Model the fold of this input.
Amino acid sequence: MPPRKIIIDTDPGQDDAVAILLALSSPEDMEVLGITAVAGNVPLELTQKNARIVCELAGKTDVPVFAGCDRPLGRQLVTAEHVHGKTGLDGPSLPDPTMPMQDQHAVDFIIETLRREDAGTVTLCVLGPLTNIATAFEKAPDVIERVQQIVLMGGAYFEVGNITPTAEFNIYVDPEAAEITFKSGVDIVVMPLDVTHKALVTQPRNDAFRDLGTPSGIAVAQMTDFFERFDKEKYGSNGAPLHDPCVTAYLIAPELFSGRRINVEIETRSDLTRGMTVADWWGVTDRPANATFIGDLDADGFFALLVERIGRL
Done:
């Protein structure tokens, strides 16, 4: 089977960086057509820079990087420096990128690529707020039916919220964009907090990254050393959740994950629950299923895959 063609839409973020490294180290499984940056964990000026830093860390400077939307569709931008640090990639000391930023806007690249490639052959891997994706769908509705699949990190059900009591960060930042995406009719696979909170970077797992002895392995260990301090204090766990790599790992080894095909709606109006993913896990409504909502993973298999693939770089 030929590698799956993907566009990575991202707001790096240390865990975004790990997800990107996993994709770039797996050419037999996925062909990265481009990386599109969006404002989220940190402002766009930093997310587009961080995406290029990660490409250079991986030695993949031929992957084009595009800057996209610098704010949500209809709201002020909320960022997460309190988790990811001032740069978004705090932890390792990585040089500024020398590879160029592409002149084309990320949204136009997404549209152009979906029109150019055969229909049903491009998967959108979304690691941040859905602003770029929804903007592309609104600007060029003809591309919606050409998307093979959207695999995204966002939302929660049993784990409720991590930025508010009811909302996960990526969905909360731009709930209107999430609503457009979930109502698009595209085949969607969701990696909510319910599964990502089971992908914990414990000390032995982080030591395995560091023991690779490579620039990428050491950088991953330093990144998780940094952001785990916040998450371990917040959750009282023995490690930090590695959220975004669940997206790219799913495309390589879907057998590591399990979930249900259910209806997911996005709350956009309530001040109390804005950004909540209202997931009909128990099938108590007659609303049609529109997403595969992942609930569990083989954590040992997941980390073994990460270490093996990142060790290639």
